[in-house]
Amino acid sequence: GDPRWLRMAGLFYDNRVLDPLAQREDKLANFHANTQVPKLIGLARIHELTGDAAKGTAARFFWETVTQHHSYVIGGNADREYFTEPDTIADHITEQTCEHCNTYNMLKLTRHLWSWQPDGALFDYYERAHLNHVMAAQDPSTGGFTYMTPLMTGADRAYSTTKDDAFWCCVGSGMESHAKHGESIFWESGDGTFYVNLYIPADAAWAARKAAVTLETGYPFTPEATLTFTKLRTGTFPVALRVPRWAGGKVQVSVNGKPETPRIERGYAIVTRRWQAGDRIAITLPLDLRIEATPGNAQTVAILRGPLVLAADLGANEQKWERADPALVGGDVL
Ligand SMILES: [Zn+2]
Fold this sequence. Notes:
By secondary structure, the protein is α+β, with helices and mostly antiparallel strands. Helix content is 28%, strand content 22%. The protein has seven helices and 14 strands. The chain has helices at 3-11, 15-22, 33-50, 53-69, 100-116, 120-134, 169-177, and strands at 186-188, 194-196, 202-206, 211-217, 224-231, 235-242, 252-255, 258-260, 263-265, 268-275, 280-284, 289-294, 297-305, 308-309. It has a six-stranded antiparallel sheet, with no helix packed on it. It has a five-stranded mixed sheet with strand order 1-2-6-10-9. Strands 12-13-14 form a three-stranded antiparallel sheet, with helices on one face. A hairpin with a 2-residue loop joins strand 7 (252-255) and strand 8. Helix 2 crosses helix 4 (53-69) and helix 5 runs antiparallel to helix 6 (120-134). The longest helix is centred in the first third of the chain and has 18 residues, at 33-50. The radius of gyration is 21 Å and the shape is globular. Zinc ion is lined by residues 99-101, 147, 168-170, 173.
């Protein structure tokens, strides 16, 4: 509430980068990518505090243009830390794509935008980047973190060592990211809707209703997720489960084991009823293989299964790959 902080934030306002975004113009090419994302998080916050419409527009347009025209299939962006011309990433599949910090910051920005207006599409991006980039940025055997996640065939990920001789920005954002897996699973809105945005096994207390919930799932390896109200005072409210756009509407919802026809709205399957303790709502999503083209290049494609981007395993970094190239084998591999 002290206006001097707002005046100070104004001193940091970068006209060259931010003015075009407020006009919904993409002039991001050749700007250092991760330097820009926090500026838009800042504008999002100023918009929340002051209602300044242009700052909200800039934050939303930046998110839209980065996720739709500058992002690789794993949700990361930038080649050698820099934005390129929109829809040109197929020409930038290099050994230095997708700095981790960029995605860490894009996820923060996503949370702001969702809080203004719930929309499943925002968490479609969040899930993609979380599962395919953030989760992949740590070496499960050593705990080391990547700076880049290269999409070039055969390029290895260079993990930080666990000695104290590496502490880049992405080591810091990496550590923080792995303490935040539970941060965005459940949400509530002002109208009392209970949202499930990410399908991750979790227990939570829901303070507004003095309730407790459990989410059980093997997703993204298995298609079903079940939410149980383990503690609840009986009441009527909507429960909204995110339906990813890639599901193509092929979603099944059941309540206490009986098929239910949810209302589908803004990327959610919504069931409003009188809920009581012990009630279960389950969702099944189609984990079919599918092909996705790169923005701006229909010939450069990725293969996905549900939210997961498939990759060929070329073995350990230290050994040269000398066997046949991995291949997808099946009756109908798209
Ligand atoms: Zn970084």
